[in-house]
Write a structure and sequence with these properties.
single chain, mainly alpha, 3-stranded antiparallel beta sheet, 3 strands, 54% helix, elongated
Length: 123
C-alpha cells in the first residue's frame, strides 16, 4: 500500500502538537502509520490481538470475529506489520501476530499535547 510506513522507518522525533513545525518527511511517516490504523477492520485487529490470551493471534483466529475472508484479514495484517504496529512470527505453517508496544506508545506520545505529557509523567 502506497504511503504506509515500514517497520524500518523511524517515527518522527517531534510531535505535530509540540508547538514547532514538523518536518515534511516526519509528517509523511506519521501519516503513513496513522493511515494504517485509520480503518475499522485494522482497529479491530489491533484490539483482538491485544486482548487474545497470549497477546498474539493467527489469521485463522481473526477471520471469524471480523467476519472477513482469510485473504482480506491477511491483507490488513500485512499493512499493520509494514507500518511497524505488529510483529509477525512464523511457526510451522502458521504466522502469529502481536502488537509492538513501543510503536503504539510512540504514536500515543506524539499525539499527546506537551502539557498533557508533562502532567501524565509527573504522576
Amino acid at each position: 500500500m502506497e504511503g504506509v510506513g515500514t517497520a524500518k522507518s523511524t517515527m518522527p522525533a517531534i510531535s505535530p502538537l509540540a508547538g514547532e513545525p514538523i518536518e515534511r518527511a516526519d509528517a509523511e511517516r506519521l501519516a503513513g502509520v496513522l493511515k494504517a490504523i485509520a480503518d475499522p477492520a485494522r482497529l479491530r485487529l489491533l484490539s483482538l490481538i491485544q486482548s487474545a490470551p497470549e497477546g498474539e493471534a493467527s489469521v485463522s483466529d481473526l477471520t471469524a470475529p471480523l467476519g472477513l475472508s482469510q485473504p482480506t484479514v491477511s491483507h490488513h495484517l500485512r499493512i499493520l506489520t509494514e507500518a511497524g504496529l505488529l510483529e509477525r512470527e512464523k511457526r510451522g505453517v502458521w504466522a502469529y501476530y502481536r502488537l509492538v508496544p513501543s510503536t503504539i506508545a510512540t504514536i500515543a506520545d506524539l499525539l499527546t499535547p506537551p502539557r498533557k505529557r508533562a502532567t501524565k509523567r509527573a504522576r
